[in-house]
Amino acid sequence: MAAVTRGCRPWGSLLGLLGLVSAAAAAWDLASLRCSLGAFCECDFRPDLQGLECDLAQHLAGQHLAKALVVKALKAFVWNPAPTKPLVLSLHGWTGTGKSYVSSLLAHYLFQGGLHSPRVHHFSPVIHFPQPSHIKRYKKDLKSWVQGNLTACGRSLFLFDEMDRMPPGLMEVLQPFLGSSWVVYGTNYRKAIFIFISNTGGEQINEVALEAWRSRRDREEILLQELEPVITRAVLDNPLHGFSRSGIMEEHLLDAVVPFLPLQRHHVRHCVLNEMAQLGLEPRDEVVQAVLDSTTFFPEDEQLFSSNGCKTVASRIAFFL
Ligand SMILES: *[C@@H]1O[C@H](CO)[C@@H](O)[C@H](O)[C@H]1NC(C)=O
């Protein structure tokens, strides 16, 4: 999905109204005001949870559980000046359902500079750990990066993409950082945020959503309690998932397992309209319809869920304009 819009700035309009200063100066004032109020502006950390909540409500289609879980976990964590352990979230779901989008929103609303902040560290197996035979070096590097960056600043975000493609054994070096006892040289390692992303459990989530639809239950009635055990089982059963034999699941180091549901036609429509608004385009029915018509749905009979969620919406809009 495209870059984040900034339609969710509750204070911006107020300051603008007062005509205080130029926009840039206002942004600076805002940050320093929030810092002195909250006293949690270490390094680049500038949490704006109201903004995050608003953006999720406007732009994340069809994910009532992910929305609620992420906001709740962050509120508890961010407002706590001395958390007892780092925040560890594991995002699961079918392709194109919003996992990467949510992580980019988190980076954007927690750190000045968003994904480009020097406090936000993004690891992808294909880019950073492509050769399973180099596992020894990867383990050494990853451990020293995490440790080095946490020594520099406790408020850091570590984002691990495609967890089901990590070289086996790599993630075990993270295990000691995710618990509650890792305090070195007076640096508080408990302020870090770790996010893990994978498609593992996606099929199981889809089955639960399909079953709910078949028994005419509202999608919003699907509970975390129904999904969490099936996702956990899918992760434990997948030897290719980075958590395999890492001790992370066994030691219960995850604060939340965050499920992303498969997207239906009206959610894809929502994505198309969002995307057009981002591009500054008026909504046009024929474009929306063309994108929907070019989307494939499953299962074969019901034609209910989009095969790749909202993943290719942006490029297809460009094609149909
Ligand atoms: C912080 O992490 C990055 C990778 O994201 C790494 O290149 C860098 O060396 C690390 N810094 C320290 C001080 O370890």
Automatic annotation (TrEMBL):
It comes from the Eukaryota. Coiled coil: none annotated. Transmembrane segments: none annotated. Residues 1-26 form the signal peptide. One of its GO terms (molecular function) is identical protein binding. InterPro entries: AAA+_ATPase, ClpA/B, P-loop_NTPase, TOR1A_C, Torsin, Torsin_1/2. ATP binds at G93, W94, T95, G96, T97, G98, K99, S100. Keywords: ATP-binding, Endoplasmic reticulum, Glycoprotein, Nucleotide-binding, Signal. Its main location: endoplasmic reticulum. One of its GO terms (cellular component) is endoplasmic reticulum lumen. It is found in: Endoplasmic reticulum lumen. Residues 85-227 form the AAA+ ATPase domain. Belongs to the ClpA/ClpB family. Torsin subfamily. This is Torsin. It comes from Cebus imitator.
